[in-house]
Design a protein that fits this description.
The protein has a single domain, classed as Aldolase class I (TIM Barrel). It is built from twelve helices and eight strands. Strands 1-2-3-4-5-6-7-8 form an eight-stranded parallel beta barrel, surrounded by four helices. Helix 8 links the parallel strand 7 and strand 8. The two termini are about 30 Å apart.
Length: about 290
Amino acid sequence: MFTGSIVALVTPMDAKGNVDRASLKKLIDYHVVSGTSAIVSVGTTGESATLTHNEHGEVVMMTVELADGRIPIIAGTGANSTAEGISLTQRFHNTGIVGCLSVTPYYNKPTQEGLFQHFKAIAEHTDLPQILYNVPSRTGCDMLPETVARLAEISNIVALKEATGNLSRVSQIQALVSEEFVLLSGDDTISLDFMQLGGKGVISVTANIAAREMAELCLLAQRGEFAAARRLNQRLMPLHHDLFVESNPIPVKWACQKLGLMTSDSMRLPMTPLSESAKPVVEQALKRSGLL
């Protein structure tokens, strides 16, 4: 369930900034037929930071409804307040959610002990499987391998999305956790290398627009067919890089609209649509990757 190509799904919005249900269904259908392993609903790429708390829950539940059991749904439940993280996690009890993705607390920069106690408290208040998410470039704090190892001993903390960009972390963490603990790349550019070192998949931005290709890439890696995987990954590399020409999810939402996967690239302030100067960059990446 927590392996392969897992998409960090965008949250489609109309021109007024309201959630676009029709486009969300189109995106979900696209991932079902493309072989995506699971959907993360309302993670960073899903604009969790600009949705209200009520909207956050509503979008996740809309995703579950529209998926209709055809693909597993993971809820983004990260918060920089432990109480809020517990509350958001408990909101998804008995809803069909298969697990939660919980990012390290942002802005307040907790210590390693603070990180341990934060995730431990959340895990103790739920039976839902928990995926830890470490992305220091966005949160301002880095969860070290030793802290991951302590948390991995808690029965319902089952995986880590590692997005430091540091491949040495894979072996460092593997040496400290059981074989059952799942390591997932949080960076498309190094996801293949990550899997070659023992990772089980990727929570991917690129998969929003290249779902079939990312699913195939992960399948090839799982089979150990790394020569073929590397050829495919090289073709996707322009996307891995240029979908971050401006802050995520700005470029990927524009690309989704360009490819007809949703009707608008609208987003909530302070996020703004892709700049005119960046549009040719993303369009060229789509062409070089064979999507246009």
